[in-house]
Amino acid sequence: MIINRNETKKIQVGNISIGGSNHIVIQSMCNTKTKNVNETIYQIRKLEQLGCEIIRVAVLDRIDARCIRFIKDNINIPLVADIHFDYRLALEAIENGADKIRINPGNIGSYESLKKVVLKCKEKHIPIRVGINGGSLEKDIEKQYGYNSPLGIFESAKRNVKLLEDLGFYDIVISLKSSDVLNTIEAYKLAASYFSYPLHIGITEAGSLLTSAIRSSAGLSPLLLNEIGSTLRISISDNPEYEIIVAKELLSSLGLYHNHPKLVACPTCGRTNYNMLPIVKEIEQFLLTINANITVAIMGCVVNGPSEAKNADIGIAGGKDEAILFKKGQIIKKVKQEDLVKTLKEEIMKMI
Ligand code: SF4
């Protein structure tokens, strides 16, 4: 269903393998309060249905850490506990079933505290994601390399990974995120040439849906096309469901995710003589519920419409208040405006 990548070290997160020759794993993060267990479970289940493969939750206190057990009992994908500053929360999250923890080894407490976390991860076979963020580099690194700089992010990753390696821990995934697209690309390139650990890629704090979709595509495409990135998150200031939708579309556009419908639609122009845009919106929503490698074309007129519609699995080319329906290259019939959505949905369902 999803194609493979060049090999890195393989890391197991619950029932999902990251790196090695595995497909690129899509992740997201809940924006619910973890202690609101029902709300969190509901959100995770929605994300699962859309194709999220690993979910992360913020652990701010001991109640959050304990809630992981109840959440885990009601979801089907591995759960990552995101922890800062307090090693005891990491220990408690692991005891309560977290499949991975995301920490910065340098800010989790003393060396002894880190050692306790590492020992617990070893005991439970839990990997650690070292999550470096360009906006919160160590003071000395920031002073030497500058705020949010690729070299600074890379040096911080090296330092934090070494803290784990010095404790004999190698079950590591690394992320080196920045809100700056070009800095992110550079940091990941440096990391990919240095580490053999799987990299979790993303543009952090990338903004709202439209902005993030553009920034994330601009930043992650060059990495993905260079076989960098074993797992990704599209960070969006909105409902996390959009993160999965954008991630799938991005991977699919790069030929890295299969079983994903492709919608071809023209922008419309003065030649369009039927109400096409609402049909595009409705069919786009409908296709989100489908896992199938099909192409659907919705086209405005006879200029480019028939050729795109013919080359799709199912397509329509607009006329006056109606459109011609194509299926596998053949003209099937004319369909009136009011019946177009229903007919397209029926034909799509027949094909999958
Ligand atoms: Fe305009 Fe026709 Fe092209 Fe659509 S297919 S943009 S309606 S010329």
How are the SSEs ordered, and which strands pair?
Elements: E1 10-13, E2 16-19, E3 25-29, H1 37-50, E4 54-58, H2 62-72, E5 79-82, H3 87-95, E6 100-103, H4 111-124, E7 128-133, H5 139-145, H6 150-165, E8 172-177, H7 181-194, E9 200-201, H8 209-225, E10 231-232, H9 241-253, E11 262-265, H10 277-287, E12 295-299, H11 305-311, E13 314-318, E14 322-327, E15 330-336, H12 340-351
Parallel strand pairs: 3-4, 3-10, 4-5, 5-6, 6-7, 7-8, 9-10, 11-12, 12-13
Antiparallel strand pairs: 1-2, 13-14, 14-15
Helix pairs in contact: 1-2, 2-3, 3-4, 5-6, 6-7, 7-8, 8-9, 10-12
Number of strands: 15
Bound small-molecule species: iron/sulfur cluster
Shape: elongated
Order of helices and strands: EEEHEHEHEHEHHEHEHEHEHEHEEEH
Q: Residue share in helices?
A: 40-55%
Strand arrangement, major sheet: 8-7-6-5-4-3-10-9
Report the mean per-residue pLDDT as an integer. 94
Tally of contiguous helical segments: 12
Structural class: alpha/beta
Report the span from N to C terminus: 15 Å
Taking all Cα atoms into account, the compactness measure Rg is 23 Å
Structure in a nutshell:
The chain has 352 residues and is an alpha/beta fold.
Walk me through the structure.
The protein has 352 residues and is an alpha/beta fold. It is 41% helix and 20% strand. It is built from twelve helices and 15 strands. The strands form three sheets. Strands 8-7-6-5-4-3-10-9 form an eight-stranded parallel β-sheet. Strands 11-12-13-14-15 form a five-stranded mixed β-sheet, sandwiched between helices. A two-stranded antiparallel ribbon has the order 1-2. A hairpin with a 2-residue loop joins strand 1 and strand 2. Helix 1 (37-50) packs across helix 2 (62-72) and helix 2 (62-72) packs parallel to helix 3 (87-95). It is elongated and about 75 Å long. It starts with 9 loop residues before the first strand and ends with a helix. The model has no long low-confidence stretch (mean pLDDT 94). The site of iron/sulfur cluster has 12 residues, from loops.
